[in-house]
Write a structure and sequence with these properties.
Strand content: 15-25%
Largest sheet: 7 strands, antiparallel
Radius of gyration: 55 Å
Number of helices: 11
Shape: elongated
Order of helices and strands: HHHEEEEHEEEEEEEHHHHHHH
Structural class: alpha+beta
């Protein structure tokens, strides 16, 4: 018979559950998952939009305020390179001038503000260095032929100042903080000091957050007060970096605890194949922990003696390695037991049975010696014959080949009679010894003649 074709109603009935809710198929769930994944990636990608203009409004408002209220030379730290391993801090400064008499013609519009390039030649000294960090010449700034605007050549208007960084707190990564103080001085072509109105830097650099504060100061050179400008840098780690680092730190410890669990489970197993799974997992964790340690953002080297390694990576590796070695040792012991053809047996303590303490029979009034009655002989019933069959005699049975069966029956009957006679004899002896009067006279005779006493003595002797 052919199969009945499935109708559309049957298909609808298969995809309908109680309450009118239609369950989603696997393909539908997969499509929704892909759509959600793409939307998630697109949402994260939108974080890069507008990221290049975050620092613009900060410098713009500051520069416009200086041009209006306190014109003069301004130094902007547009980049800061912090190297903890060196250790040093390199600040990339940009020369800016605000206000009439300080701004070079055709150079306004820096950072979208009213300020431009300095109109006078400048020599900038950092940390009282005898050599200037930069020599600025406005005559070297080129102009665009069509518009007449000045070109801002980075090598002409930018310079770097290197400073030594104190890193005694570097071992506290990711909660390490740093502090830097420095001073800058500017002079013109006539060796006259030019006041610096403002020092400012960016706040966010790679792996660090920088907070800058500047203060007006002076130096005494040849008995004369020379105006300078000092700045202080407070360097810390951003919150996102600390969060990711501590998350990886916690994950490493959780993986280390998992290896301890593998040892506990492997110790309770007998099957070597099941124990091998725990060994592979523990060994994989041993390889993953260093990779997660290297994944920490801007992490120090392993030889920098960071606190996070002393309380994290080093003990994690030691514990994980010991767990792997322990599982290997357990597997070797199990294999050795299988090679010997047995598991490690448990020792069973066998306690001997307690020996009963012999007790003397109580004294009784002697009884007169009496011969035990003979066992009663039960009358044998004559067999009832069916259909008046004749009873065969012994000679006839012998002639018919039944001699062997009759002999076995006679042997069994004689064994029963012998056992009954021994029982009667044992009862007689027990009554005799309970009297305690003639036992010392009759005991030698009974000892020689009674097979029960002889058997008991041979049993105790053995």
């Amino acid at each position: 018979m052919g199969a009945r074709p499935r109708s559309r109603g049957d298909a609808v009935h298969q995809h309908t559950s109680i309450g009118g809710i239609v369950p989603l198929q696997n393909v539908t769930i997969l499509i929704f998952t892909l759509i959600f994944s793409l939307l998630f990636i697109l949402a994260l990608s939108c974080s890069f939009l507008g990221g290049d203009v975050e620092d613009g409004p900060i410098f713009k408002s500051m520069l416009n305020d200086i041009a209006t209220n306190d014109p003069g030379v301004v130094l902007l730290g547009e980049n800061i390179d912090i190297d903890v391993d060196e250790p040093s801090v390199t600040v990339s400064w940009s020369l800016v001038a605000c206000g009439d008499g300080f701004e070079l013609d055709g150079s306004s519009g820096i950072h979208g503000s009213q300020c431009g390039l300095p109109s006078m030649a400048l020599w900038i000294y950092a940390d009282n260095s005898p050599e200037p960090a930069v020599i600025y010449d406005p005559a070297a700034i080129p102009l665009v032929r069509k518009t007449g605007q000045r070109r801002r050549i980075e090598n002409f208007v930018r310079f770097d100042s290197d400073h030594t960084l104190d890193v005694y707190k570097a071992r506290l990564y990711p909660f390490d903080t740093y502090f830097l103080a420095s001073t800058l001085r500017a002079v013109d072509a006539s060796n006259a000091t030019v006041p610096i109105r403002k020092l400012s830097t960016i706040e966010q650099v790679t792996s660090f957050v920088v907070a800058t504060s500047d203060v007006e100061s002076y130096e005494i050179i040849n008995g004369t007060q020379v105006p300078t400008r000092d700045f202080d840098l407070f360097v810390t780690r951003p919150g996102q970096l600390r969060s990711y680092t501590m998350l990886l730190f916690g994950i490493n410890w959780m993986l280390c605890h998992v290896t301890i669990g593998h040892v506990i489970f492997a110790r309770r197993l007998v099957d070597i194949k099941s124990m091998t799974k725990h060994l592979v997992s523990a060994f994989a964790i041993l390889l993953v922990i260093p990779q997660l340690r290297n994944s920490m953002p801007d992490s120090p080297d392993f030889d920098d003696s960071a606190l996070i390694d002393y309380i994290g990576f080093i003990p994690q590796m030691i514990i994980s390695a010991l767990c792997v070695l322990t599982i290997l040792l357990i597997i070797m012991l199990r294999e050795y037991d299988e090679m010997e053809g047995k598991q490690t047996p448990r020792q069973i303590t066998v306690q001997p049975f307690p020996t009963p303490t012999p007790t003397l029979p109580p004294l009784h009034t002697p009884k007169m010696f009496s011969v035990p009655p003979a066992p009663p002989i039960l009358p044998q019933k004559s067999p009832q014959l069916l259909l008046r069959a004749e009873v065969r005699t012994r000679s006839i049975a012998m002639e018919l080949g039944e001699a062997t069966c009759l002999k076995n029956e006679l042997d069994a009957t004689s064994d029963q009679i012998r056992a009954q006679s021994r029982l009667v004899e044992s009862n007689f002896l027990s009554d005799m010894f309970q009297s305690n009067r003639f036992s010392f006279l009759l005991y030698p005779y009974v000892k020689r003649t009674s097979p029960v006493i002889r058997a008991s003595q041979s049993f105790h002797r053995d």
